[in-house]
Specification:
mainly alpha, Rhopdopsin 7-helix transmembrane proteins, 74% helix, 0% strand, globular
Length: 319
């Protein structure tokens, strides 16, 4: 019997060698240089925890919020509380950036609403319709269209910075009636209509799904333990983004209503508060994220405490 085992030993070694080679070939896809099987380093694998289509949209919105606090708020305070000493060119650039960032924020809210609509109303098609590539493309197109639209909207203010300035130390924005009416439709009425229609549909479907989950008590245990949890996560995300959109409407409606009715409706001090409201919305968005997203709190803690600089911080589980 020992002799028989010894006779089969070369065959066993050949089989193990073949399996080892096969394993190396399979692992070759993870190597930096697949042709160098034994000496090549492996490709680093990063845990893409937060890289989801919804979070890409939230990132775009967060960038616009950050730019509002970094650029627009200081410029608006300087423009309304003291003399403008930065020159006509900087004034023109400030107006241009203000239009781009504001319109990009509105576009992000529309994209977020569309994302939640597909996730809640058409969940089976969500992985194929809302992909990372498509979302990144939509975000890029949103910002590019904001640049293009702002160039048309502020054409005279950008090409001739000192055209509407009556004295030194002044930074004003002059928009004719037709351009103002088009701006209200493009940046307010049309986006709000789309957002309201989508969210009415989202919450109608969310309510029906909640009732269906409560009524299916006798469902299969696997479905009862997995499916409701996924649905609950989607409904929570829809509720959070619904609050986000609601706050957005509250902050932007007064500004556009005053713009449509004219400056003579309110006093100068009241108009100043109305103008600051859209910028204040950018301050509220991070607060909303912190209240409704636990992973956002953990991510902020990692950044503030500088734990993000420690080795292996990218592998930390914050979900």
């Amino acid at each position: 019997m020992i002799k028989s085992f010894g006779q089969n030993l070369p065959e066993l070694q050949l089989h193990l060698s073949s399996s080892h080679c096969l394993m190396e070939v399979d692992d070759g896809a993870e190597l930096c240089f697949p042709q160098l099987l034994n000496t090549s380093c492996r490709k680093p694998t990063l845990p893409w925890q937060l890289h989801t289509p919804t979070n890409i949209l939230l990132l775009s919105l967060a960038v616009s919020d950050f730019l509002v606090g970094l650029l627009l708020m200081p410029g608006e305070i300087l423009r309304r509380t003291s003399c403008w000493f930065l020159g006509d060119l900087v004034c023109s650039l400030y107006k241009y950036l203000a239009c781009i960032i504001t319109f990009a924020s509105v576009g992000d809210m529309v994209l977020i609403s569309a994302d939640r609509y597909v996730a809640i109303c058409e969940p089976l098609h969500y992985p194929t319709r809302i992909t990372m590539t498509r979302v990144k493309l939509c975000v890029c197109l949103c910002w590019l269209f904001s640049v293009f639209y702002s160039s048309l909207y502020l054409k005279d203010n950008v090409t001739q910075p000192d055209r509407y300035i009556s004295c030194y130390g002044e930074c004003v924005i002059n928009i004719d009636y037709v351009a103002g009416a088009v701006d209200i439709v493009v940046t307010f009425i049309a986006p709000i209509t789309v957002i309201i229609v989508l969210y009415m549909r989202v919450f109608a479907v969310a309510v029906s799904q909640a009732r269906a989950m409560r009524s299916h008590i006798t469902a299969v245990r696997l479905q009862r333990s997995v499916t409701p949890k996924a649905k609950k996560s989607e409904l929570k995300a829809a509720r959070t983004l619904g609050v986000l959109v609601f706050v957005f409407l509250i902050c932007f409606c007064p500004y556009y209503c005053v713009s449509f009715a004219g400056d003579n409706v309110l006093s100068a001090s009241s108009i100043a508060y109305v103008i600051y409201l859209p910028y204040f919305n950018s301050c509220l968005n991070p607060v909303i994220y912190a209240l409704f997203y636990p992973w956002f709190k953990k991510a902020i803690t990692q950044i503030v405490t500088f734990k993000i600089l420690q080795p292996g911080s990218s592998e930390a589980n914050i979900l």
